[in-house]
Amino acid sequence: MSLAPQELENNASTYASEAIKLDSQGARGMAITNYQKAIDSLVKLLQLYPNSKLNTLYKERCNSYHKRINALQQSHGVDPAVDPKASPEEQKASVQRQDDENDFEELVMKERPNVSWSEVIGLDDAKSALRESIIYPTKRPDLFPLGWPKGMLLYGPPGTGKTMLAAATASEMDGYFINVDASSMMSKWLGEAEKNVSKLFRMARKYAEKESKPVILFVDEVDSLLGSRNSEVGGEIRTKNQFLTEMDGVNGKGKDLMLYVIGATNKPWSLDWPFLRRFQKRIYVSLPTEKARESLFKQYTSDLNLSPRVNSSELASMFDGYSASDIKDVCQSAHLKTVHELFDSPEYHEPVEGEPPQKPRTLTTADFRSIMARRKPSVSTEMIRAYHKWSEEFRAL
Ligand SMILES: Nc1ncnc2c1ncn2[C@@H]1O[C@H](COP(=O)(O)OP(=O)(O)OP(=O)(O)O)[C@@H](O)[C@H]1O
Ligand SMILES: [Mg+2]
What we know:
The chain has helices at 5-24, 28-48, 55-73, 88-105, 124-139, 162-172, 182-188, 193-211, 223-226, 236-251, 273-277, 290-301, 312-318, 324-344, 365-374, 381-394, and strands at residues 151-155, 176-181, 215-220, 259-265, 281-284. By secondary structure, the chain is α/β, with parallel strands linked by helices. The protein has three domains: 1-77, Methane Monooxygenase Hydroxylase, Chain G, domain 1; 117-287 and 386-394, Rossmann fold (3-Layer(aba) Sandwich), CATH 3.40.50; 290-378, Helicase, Ruva Protein, domain 3 (Orthogonal Bundle). The longest helix is centred in the N-terminal third of the chain and has 21 residues, at 28-48. It is globular, with a radius of gyration of 23 Å. The structure holds adenosine-5'-triphosphate and magnesium ion. Magnesium ion is lined by residues 162-163, 220, 264.
C-alpha cells in the first residue's frame, strides 16, 4: 500500500525532528539513522510524485540532511582547502568562514519552483494578501510612505497549500527566495543557532541591498524553531530572541528594504505573542470550500480517464471536510485502483508491438465513493474548531 504524500511529508518531519533532538543530545548514531529515515521518506515522495511542484523544496531538505549526516560521520575531519601555513586559529576561522558561506548560499533557491498562482486552488485571501504585501510595494515603493508589512505567517491545517503558496510566490516574482525549514535549520546549526540566525538575516539583507530586488526568507514549520511549549534546551530561548530582534530589524530600520519573512505552521497555538506580533499579517490557509474542492477535482483528474458521468461538483459535495492534499490522494488512489485491476485481470498481457497498449477502464463515481469509505479526512472537526478559535483571536489580514 502506498503512503499518501501528506503522510510521507509528515513522516519526514517527524524523523527530522527526532534526529535533531538526538543530535542535540549527542546521540550521533541514532541521529544519523533518523536523518536517513527522513531522507528515505522524502526520496519516496520524490519517486512517487516525480512531477510534484514542491520537489525543489524537498530536494533541498534531503541535501541538508545529507550534509548533516556527513558532518556527523566525519566530525573533526580536516578541510583540505585550508592554507597549511596559517596559524591553527586562522585555519579554523577559514574553515568556519567557508562553511558559513556555503551553508547560507545553498539556501538561496537558484532554480525557481514552477508553481503558478493559478495552480494554487482557492485561498483567495491568502493570495491577495501576499500579492498586496509583496508585489505592489516592489513595483511602487513610493506609494508606501509608512512602509508595509514585512512579516507574514501562513497557518492552517496540514495539506492545505501553505508550502505551495510560498513556492508560488517565489516562482512568480523576480527576486530571491531563501528557503529554510526550521528543522533542518536547527540541525545544521546545533549549538550555533543563535549566531546563525543573525547570519541568515545578514545574508538576506545583503541580497536585498545588492540588487534592490525583493528577497523572501521562507521559514517552513516555523513552530519547531520558536514554539513556546518546546522544552527550551540548548539555547532555544536565545535563538528565539535573536529571531525576534532580527524581525525588529526587518520591520524597523530596514523598512525600505524589500526583505520579507514568510513563516508557515500548522501549530499556530504553539507560538507566543512576542513572536506573533512581529508577523503583522497572519493568514489562515483553510480547508477548501466546496467550490475549491470542485476545482481541485477538476485539476487532479484532468490527466485521468474519467467516465463522462463523473461530475466534479458531485464529488465536491461528497468530499466535504477533505483537504486539498487529501483530494489529490483520493484521485490518485482511484486511478491506482483501476491500474491494479488491469494488472490483475486474466486478459492482461505485456505490450505487443503494433498493438495499442491495454489501458485501465474508465473511472466512475462509485470508485470515488469506495475510496471515500476507506479514507477519512486527515483533519478532524475538533482540529478545525481549534483553528477557528485561534483565528478569532489572532488572525490579522
Ligand atoms: N490549495 C491547493 N491547491 C492545489 N493543490 C494543493 C493545495 N493545497 C495543497 N495541495 C496539494 O497538496 C500537496 C501538499 O500541500 P502543501 O505541502 O502546500 O501543504 P501544507 O499546507 O504546507 O501542509 P503542512 O502544514 O503539512 O506543511 C501539494 O503539493 C499540492 O499537490
Ligand atoms: Mg508545508
